[in-house]
Amino acid sequence: MKVIDHIQQAKSTLVSFEILPPLKGKTISSIYEHLDPLMEFKPAFINVTYHRSETMFKKKTDGTFEKVEVRKRPGTVGICAAIMNHYKVDAVPHLICGGFGKRETEDALIDLHFLGVDNVLVLRGDAAKNESSFEPEPNGHRFAIDLLKQVVCLNQGVYLEEDIKNGGKTNFCIGVAGYPEKHFEAPNLDTDLMYLKQKVEAGAEYITTQMFFDNQKYFDFVKTCRENGINVPVVPGLKPITNKKQLSMLPKVFHVDLPTELSSAILKCRTDAEVEVVGTEWLIHQSRELKAAGVPVLHYYTLGKPKVIETAVRAVF
Ligand code: FAD
Protein backbone atom coordinates (compact mmCIF):
# COMPACT_ATOMS: atom_id res chain seq x y z
CA MET A 1 0.00 0.00 0.00
CA LYS A 2 1.19 3.52 -0.75
CA VAL A 3 2.35 5.88 1.99
CA ILE A 4 -0.10 8.51 0.74
CA ASP A 5 -2.98 6.04 1.08
CA HIS A 6 -1.91 5.19 4.63
CA ILE A 7 -1.94 8.90 5.44
CA GLN A 8 -5.24 9.65 3.74
CA GLN A 9 -7.02 6.67 5.34
CA ALA A 10 -5.66 7.24 8.86
CA LYS A 11 -8.00 8.47 11.59
CA SER A 12 -5.14 9.65 13.81
CA THR A 13 -1.37 10.16 13.74
CA LEU A 14 0.53 7.15 12.38
CA VAL A 15 3.96 5.92 13.39
CA SER A 16 6.79 4.89 11.08
CA PHE A 17 10.43 3.92 11.49
CA GLU A 18 13.61 4.35 9.51
CA ILE A 19 16.49 1.88 9.54
CA LEU A 20 19.97 1.72 8.07
CA PRO A 21 21.11 -1.40 6.15
CA PRO A 22 23.67 -3.22 8.31
CA LEU A 23 27.34 -3.22 7.41
CA LYS A 24 28.41 -5.86 4.88
CA GLY A 25 28.72 -9.34 6.34
CA LYS A 26 25.70 -9.14 8.67
CA THR A 27 22.49 -11.01 7.98
CA ILE A 28 18.84 -10.04 7.88
CA SER A 29 18.51 -11.28 11.48
CA SER A 30 20.30 -8.09 12.63
CA ILE A 31 17.44 -6.12 11.06
CA TYR A 32 14.80 -8.32 12.67
CA GLU A 33 16.46 -7.98 16.11
CA HIS A 34 16.39 -4.22 15.64
CA LEU A 35 12.77 -4.07 14.48
CA ASP A 36 11.14 -6.83 16.55
CA PRO A 37 10.67 -4.69 19.71
CA LEU A 38 9.14 -1.89 17.62
CA MET A 39 6.57 -3.91 15.72
CA GLU A 40 3.98 -3.87 18.53
CA PHE A 41 3.42 -0.18 17.63
CA LYS A 42 2.13 -1.27 14.21
CA PRO A 43 4.18 1.08 12.02
CA ALA A 44 2.39 2.10 8.84
CA PHE A 45 5.67 1.78 6.94
CA ILE A 46 9.39 1.30 7.46
CA ASN A 47 11.98 3.29 5.52
CA VAL A 48 15.33 1.77 4.56
CA THR A 49 18.15 4.18 3.73
CA TYR A 50 20.36 3.89 0.64
CA HIS A 51 24.10 4.44 0.54
CA ARG A 52 26.63 5.24 -2.13
CA SER A 53 30.06 3.64 -2.28
CA GLU A 54 33.06 5.31 -0.63
CA THR A 55 36.49 5.75 -2.14
CA MET A 56 39.21 4.09 -0.07
CA PHE A 57 42.94 3.71 -0.54
CA LYS A 58 44.29 0.22 0.15
CA LYS A 59 48.00 -0.27 0.70
CA LYS A 60 49.56 -2.77 -1.71
CA THR A 61 52.54 -5.05 -0.92
CA ASP A 62 54.91 -2.75 -2.86
CA GLY A 63 53.97 0.16 -0.59
CA THR A 64 51.85 2.02 -3.16
CA PHE A 65 48.14 2.62 -2.70
CA GLU A 66 45.28 1.33 -4.78
CA LYS A 67 42.05 3.32 -5.09
CA VAL A 68 38.99 1.13 -4.48
CA GLU A 69 35.26 1.87 -4.33
CA VAL A 70 33.62 0.15 -1.35
CA ARG A 71 29.90 0.04 -0.71
CA LYS A 72 29.69 -0.63 2.99
CA ARG A 73 25.92 -0.87 3.31
CA PRO A 74 24.38 -2.53 0.27
CA GLY A 75 21.07 -4.35 0.36
CA THR A 76 18.26 -1.78 0.51
CA VAL A 77 16.16 -3.53 -2.16
CA GLY A 78 16.53 -6.98 -0.55
CA ILE A 79 15.94 -5.63 2.96
CA CYS A 80 12.70 -3.97 1.83
CA ALA A 81 11.48 -7.24 0.34
CA ALA A 82 12.43 -9.15 3.52
CA ILE A 83 10.65 -6.61 5.77
CA MET A 84 7.48 -6.75 3.69
CA ASN A 85 7.52 -10.53 3.63
CA HIS A 86 8.42 -11.02 7.31
CA TYR A 87 6.26 -8.34 8.96
CA LYS A 88 3.61 -7.69 6.27
CA VAL A 89 4.40 -3.98 6.60
CA ASP A 90 5.08 -1.59 3.73
CA ALA A 91 8.71 -0.75 3.14
CA VAL A 92 9.95 2.55 1.71
CA PRO A 93 13.36 2.26 0.05
CA HIS A 94 15.34 5.45 -0.28
CA LEU A 95 16.84 6.04 -3.73
CA ILE A 96 19.71 8.45 -4.25
CA CYS A 97 21.35 10.10 -7.26
CA GLY A 98 24.89 10.07 -5.83
CA GLY A 99 27.00 7.17 -7.05
CA PHE A 100 24.27 5.71 -9.23
CA GLY A 101 23.63 5.91 -12.95
CA LYS A 102 20.20 6.02 -14.55
CA ARG A 103 20.43 2.38 -15.66
CA GLU A 104 21.26 1.08 -12.19
CA THR A 105 18.38 3.14 -10.85
CA GLU A 106 16.01 1.74 -13.45
CA ASP A 107 17.11 -1.81 -12.60
CA ALA A 108 16.54 -1.14 -8.88
CA LEU A 109 13.07 0.26 -9.63
CA ILE A 110 12.22 -2.77 -11.76
CA ASP A 111 13.35 -5.09 -8.94
CA LEU A 112 11.31 -3.13 -6.39
CA HIS A 113 8.25 -3.28 -8.64
CA PHE A 114 8.66 -7.07 -9.10
CA LEU A 115 8.88 -7.42 -5.32
CA GLY A 116 5.64 -5.53 -4.71
CA VAL A 117 7.21 -2.40 -3.20
CA ASP A 118 4.86 0.55 -3.88
CA ASN A 119 6.91 3.37 -2.41
CA VAL A 120 10.19 5.23 -2.86
CA LEU A 121 11.71 8.24 -1.14
CA VAL A 122 13.85 10.01 -3.74
CA LEU A 123 16.89 11.99 -2.67
CA ARG A 124 20.00 13.48 -4.13
CA GLY A 125 22.47 12.11 -1.58
CA ASP A 126 25.45 14.01 -0.23
CA ALA A 127 28.82 14.66 -1.86
CA ALA A 128 31.24 11.73 -1.78
CA LYS A 129 33.75 11.98 1.08
CA ASN A 130 36.57 12.85 -1.32
CA GLU A 131 34.56 15.56 -3.12
CA SER A 132 34.02 19.15 -1.96
CA SER A 133 30.59 19.36 -3.57
CA PHE A 134 28.06 16.94 -5.01
CA GLU A 135 29.00 15.52 -8.41
CA PRO A 136 26.58 13.25 -10.24
CA GLU A 137 27.73 10.13 -12.08
CA PRO A 138 28.38 10.83 -15.79
CA ASN A 139 25.11 9.04 -16.61
CA GLY A 140 23.34 9.93 -13.38
CA HIS A 141 21.15 12.68 -11.92
CA ARG A 142 22.26 16.02 -10.44
CA PHE A 143 19.17 16.77 -8.33
CA ALA A 144 16.48 14.73 -6.60
CA ILE A 145 13.91 16.16 -9.02
CA ASP A 146 15.73 14.51 -11.95
CA LEU A 147 15.57 11.13 -10.22
CA LEU A 148 11.95 11.78 -9.35
CA LYS A 149 11.18 12.42 -13.02
CA GLN A 150 12.76 9.06 -13.89
CA VAL A 151 10.40 7.33 -11.44
CA VAL A 152 7.43 9.27 -12.85
CA CYS A 153 8.44 8.15 -16.37
CA LEU A 154 8.57 4.51 -15.26
CA ASN A 155 5.14 4.95 -13.65
CA GLN A 156 4.00 5.93 -17.16
CA GLY A 157 5.72 2.93 -18.76
CA VAL A 158 8.56 5.02 -20.23
CA TYR A 159 11.91 3.17 -19.92
CA LEU A 160 15.42 4.32 -20.76
CA GLU A 161 15.53 2.00 -23.78
CA GLU A 162 13.64 3.89 -26.43
CA ASP A 163 12.70 0.67 -28.23
CA ILE A 164 10.55 -0.44 -25.26
CA LYS A 165 7.14 0.73 -26.40
CA ASN A 166 4.24 0.67 -23.95
CA GLY A 167 6.35 -1.01 -21.28
CA GLY A 168 4.75 -2.24 -18.05
CA LYS A 169 3.91 0.69 -15.80
CA THR A 170 5.21 0.83 -12.26
CA ASN A 171 3.04 2.44 -9.59
CA PHE A 172 5.35 4.06 -7.07
CA CYS A 173 4.19 6.60 -4.52
CA ILE A 174 7.05 9.12 -4.38
CA GLY A 175 8.19 10.98 -1.28
CA VAL A 176 10.89 13.67 -1.10
CA ALA A 177 12.98 15.35 1.60
CA GLY A 178 12.25 18.77 3.11
CA TYR A 179 14.33 20.88 5.49
CA PRO A 180 12.60 22.98 8.20
CA GLU A 181 15.98 24.66 8.82
CA LYS A 182 16.67 24.80 5.04
CA HIS A 183 19.07 22.60 3.10
CA PHE A 184 22.62 23.67 3.88
CA GLU A 185 23.47 24.48 0.24
CA ALA A 186 20.39 26.63 -0.36
CA PRO A 187 21.04 30.39 -0.20
CA ASN A 188 17.80 30.88 1.78
CA LEU A 189 14.59 29.09 2.73
CA ASP A 190 12.60 30.73 -0.10
CA THR A 191 14.91 29.28 -2.75
CA ASP A 192 14.90 25.88 -1.07
CA LEU A 193 11.08 25.95 -1.00
CA MET A 194 10.95 26.93 -4.66
CA TYR A 195 12.83 23.71 -5.51
CA LEU A 196 10.72 21.72 -3.05
CA LYS A 197 7.60 22.99 -4.79
CA GLN A 198 9.05 21.90 -8.13
CA LYS A 199 9.51 18.39 -6.73
CA VAL A 200 5.88 18.32 -5.61
CA GLU A 201 4.64 19.65 -8.95
CA ALA A 202 6.72 16.98 -10.70
CA GLY A 203 4.95 14.22 -8.75
CA ALA A 204 6.05 13.99 -5.11
CA GLU A 205 3.05 13.03 -3.00
CA TYR A 206 4.45 13.79 0.43
CA ILE A 207 7.49 15.28 2.16
CA THR A 208 9.54 13.76 4.99
CA THR A 209 11.56 16.28 6.95
CA GLN A 210 15.10 16.37 8.13
CA MET A 211 15.31 15.90 11.90
CA PHE A 212 14.61 18.97 14.05
CA PHE A 213 14.68 19.47 17.81
CA ASP A 214 12.45 22.53 18.06
CA ASN A 215 8.87 21.79 17.00
CA GLN A 216 8.25 25.45 16.22
CA LYS A 217 10.65 25.06 13.27
CA TYR A 218 8.44 22.27 11.89
CA PHE A 219 5.21 24.25 12.45
CA ASP A 220 6.71 27.33 10.76
CA PHE A 221 7.99 25.20 7.87
CA VAL A 222 4.56 23.64 7.24
CA LYS A 223 2.93 27.09 7.40
CA THR A 224 5.44 28.49 4.89
CA CYS A 225 4.94 25.46 2.63
CA ARG A 226 1.19 26.10 2.62
CA GLU A 227 1.70 29.83 1.94
CA ASN A 228 3.85 28.83 -1.03
CA GLY A 229 1.28 26.43 -2.45
CA ILE A 230 2.94 23.21 -1.24
CA ASN A 231 -0.05 21.30 0.04
CA VAL A 232 1.11 17.67 0.36
CA PRO A 233 1.48 16.02 3.81
CA VAL A 234 4.68 16.93 5.65
CA VAL A 235 5.90 14.02 7.77
CA PRO A 236 8.12 15.12 10.69
CA GLY A 237 11.37 13.15 11.08
CA LEU A 238 12.50 12.67 14.69
CA LYS A 239 15.80 11.50 16.08
CA PRO A 240 16.82 10.90 19.70
CA ILE A 241 19.96 12.38 21.20
CA THR A 242 21.85 9.70 23.09
CA ASN A 243 25.40 10.98 23.61
CA LYS A 244 27.30 14.19 24.23
CA LYS A 245 29.22 14.08 20.95
CA GLN A 246 25.96 14.71 19.10
CA LEU A 247 25.93 18.26 20.47
CA SER A 248 28.55 19.19 17.90
CA MET A 249 28.08 16.35 15.42
CA LEU A 250 24.38 16.98 14.62
CA PRO A 251 24.80 20.66 13.72
CA LYS A 252 27.95 19.84 11.72
CA VAL A 253 26.62 16.88 9.74
CA PHE A 254 22.89 17.64 9.52
CA HIS A 255 22.93 21.45 9.74
CA VAL A 256 20.30 21.62 12.48
CA ASP A 257 20.18 23.74 15.64
CA LEU A 258 19.64 22.41 19.13
CA PRO A 259 17.49 24.55 21.44
CA THR A 260 19.41 26.09 24.37
CA GLU A 261 17.21 24.28 26.89
CA LEU A 262 18.18 20.93 25.37
CA SER A 263 21.89 21.67 24.96
CA SER A 264 22.11 23.05 28.54
CA ALA A 265 20.49 19.92 29.95
CA ILE A 266 22.88 17.72 27.97
CA LEU A 267 25.92 19.72 29.08
CA LYS A 268 24.99 19.06 32.72
CA CYS A 269 25.05 15.26 32.14
CA ARG A 270 28.08 13.36 33.45
CA THR A 271 27.62 10.21 31.34
CA ASP A 272 26.08 9.24 28.03
CA ALA A 273 23.54 7.17 29.97
CA GLU A 274 22.33 10.45 31.52
CA VAL A 275 22.30 12.09 28.07
CA GLU A 276 20.12 9.25 26.82
CA VAL A 277 17.57 9.96 29.58
CA VAL A 278 17.48 13.66 28.65
CA GLY A 279 17.29 12.82 24.91
CA THR A 280 14.45 10.35 25.47
CA GLU A 281 12.45 12.88 27.52
CA TRP A 282 12.97 15.49 24.81
CA LEU A 283 11.82 13.06 22.11
CA ILE A 284 8.69 12.23 24.14
CA HIS A 285 7.94 15.93 24.63
CA GLN A 286 8.42 16.63 20.90
CA SER A 287 6.31 13.62 19.88
CA ARG A 288 3.42 14.47 22.23
CA GLU A 289 3.25 18.05 21.01
CA LEU A 290 3.38 17.05 17.34
CA LYS A 291 0.75 14.34 17.84
CA ALA A 292 -1.51 16.81 19.65
CA ALA A 293 -1.11 19.15 16.67
CA GLY A 294 -2.41 16.34 14.42
CA VAL A 295 0.67 15.63 12.28
CA PRO A 296 0.06 12.81 9.77
CA VAL A 297 2.88 10.53 10.91
CA LEU A 298 5.62 10.53 13.54
CA HIS A 299 8.62 9.18 11.64
CA TYR A 300 11.43 7.97 13.90
CA TYR A 301 15.04 7.64 12.78
CA THR A 302 15.85 4.53 14.83
CA LEU A 303 19.51 4.39 13.70
CA GLY A 304 20.98 1.94 16.23
CA LYS A 305 18.75 3.08 19.12
CA PRO A 306 15.59 0.97 18.99
CA LYS A 307 15.33 0.85 22.81
CA VAL A 308 15.08 4.66 23.09
CA ILE A 309 12.51 4.77 20.30
CA GLU A 310 10.53 1.97 21.98
CA THR A 311 10.43 3.93 25.27
CA ALA A 312 9.39 7.14 23.52
CA VAL A 313 6.71 5.61 21.30
CA ARG A 314 5.27 3.68 24.26
CA ALA A 315 4.95 6.96 26.16
CA VAL A 316 3.17 8.66 23.27
CA PHE A 317 0.88 6.06 21.65
P1 FAD B 1 17.68 18.10 -3.73
O1 FAD B 1 16.22 18.21 -3.64
O2 FAD B 1 18.27 17.76 -5.05
O3 FAD B 1 18.29 19.49 -3.19
C1 FAD B 1 19.69 19.62 -2.98
C2 FAD B 1 20.07 21.11 -3.00
O4 FAD B 1 19.92 21.61 -4.30
C3 FAD B 1 19.17 21.99 -2.12
O5 FAD B 1 19.97 23.01 -1.60
C4 FAD B 1 18.13 22.53 -3.07
O6 FAD B 1 17.63 23.79 -2.66
C5 FAD B 1 18.91 22.61 -4.38
N1 FAD B 1 18.13 22.29 -5.57
C6 FAD B 1 17.14 21.37 -5.69
N2 FAD B 1 16.71 21.30 -6.95
C7 FAD B 1 17.45 22.19 -7.66
C8 FAD B 1 17.48 22.59 -9.03
N3 FAD B 1 16.64 22.06 -9.92
N4 FAD B 1 18.39 23.53 -9.40
C9 FAD B 1 19.24 24.09 -8.51
N5 FAD B 1 19.24 23.77 -7.18
C10 FAD B 1 18.36 22.83 -6.78
N6 FAD B 1 21.13 10.59 2.02
C11 FAD B 1 21.58 9.37 1.60
O7 FAD B 1 22.69 9.28 1.05
N7 FAD B 1 20.83 8.23 1.78
C12 FAD B 1 19.60 8.27 2.37
O8 FAD B 1 18.97 7.23 2.51
C13 FAD B 1 19.10 9.53 2.83
N8 FAD B 1 17.89 9.63 3.41
C14 FAD B 1 17.40 10.87 3.78
C15 FAD B 1 16.08 10.98 4.30
C16 FAD B 1 15.56 12.21 4.66
C17 FAD B 1 14.15 12.31 5.20
C18 FAD B 1 16.35 13.39 4.51
C19 FAD B 1 15.81 14.73 4.93
C20 FAD B 1 17.64 13.30 3.99
C21 FAD B 1 18.17 12.06 3.61
N9 FAD B 1 19.44 11.92 3.04
C22 FAD B 1 19.92 10.69 2.63
C23 FAD B 1 20.32 13.11 2.90
C24 FAD B 1 20.11 13.83 1.55
O9 FAD B 1 20.54 13.00 0.50
C25 FAD B 1 20.92 15.12 1.60
O10 FAD B 1 20.35 16.02 2.52
C26 FAD B 1 21.21 15.81 0.25
O11 FAD B 1 22.25 16.77 0.48
C27 FAD B 1 20.03 16.54 -0.36
O12 FAD B 1 19.08 15.68 -0.81
P2 FAD B 1 17.70 16.23 -1.45
O13 FAD B 1 16.96 15.07 -1.95
O14 FAD B 1 17.04 17.15 -0.50
O15 FAD B 1 18.30 17.06 -2.69
Written account of the structure:
The protein has 317 residues and is an alpha/beta fold. The chain has one domain: TIM Barrel (Alpha-Beta Barrel). 40% of the residues lie in helices and 18% in strands. The chain has helices spanning 3-9, 28-35, 76-87, 102-114, 144-155, 189-201, 215-227, 246-254, 260-267, 272-292, 306-316; strands at 14-19, 45-48, 54-59, 65-70, 90-96, 119-123, 173-178, 206-211, 234-238, 297-301. The strands form 2 sheets. It has an 8-stranded parallel β-barrel with strand order 1-2-5-6-7-8-9-10, surrounded by 5 helices. Strands 3-4 form a two-stranded antiparallel ribbon. Helix 7 links the parallel strand 8 (206-211) and strand 9. The chain is globular, with a radius of gyration of 20 Å. The relative contact order is 0.13. The site of flavin-adenine dinucleotide has 22 residues, from strand 5, helix 5, helix 6 and strand 8.
**Briefly, what CATH class?**
Alpha Beta
Compute the CA-based radius of gyration.
20 Å
- In the sheet with the most strands, the strands line up as 1-2-5-6-7-8-9-10
> Based on the structure given, which CATH architecture is correct?
Alpha-Beta Barrel
Number of strands: 10
Secondary-structure topology with pairs:
Layout: H1 3-9, E1 14-19, H2 28-35, E2 45-48, E3 54-59, E4 65-70, H3 76-87, E5 90-96, H4 102-114, E6 119-123, H5 144-155, E7 173-178, H6 189-201, E8 206-211, H7 215-227, E9 234-238, H8 246-254, H9 260-267, H10 272-292, E10 297-301, H11 306-316
Parallel strand pairs: 1-2, 1-10, 2-5, 5-6, 6-7, 7-8, 8-9, 9-10
Antiparallel strand pairs: 3-4
Helix pairs in contact: 4-5, 10-11
The structure holds flavin-adenine dinucleotide.
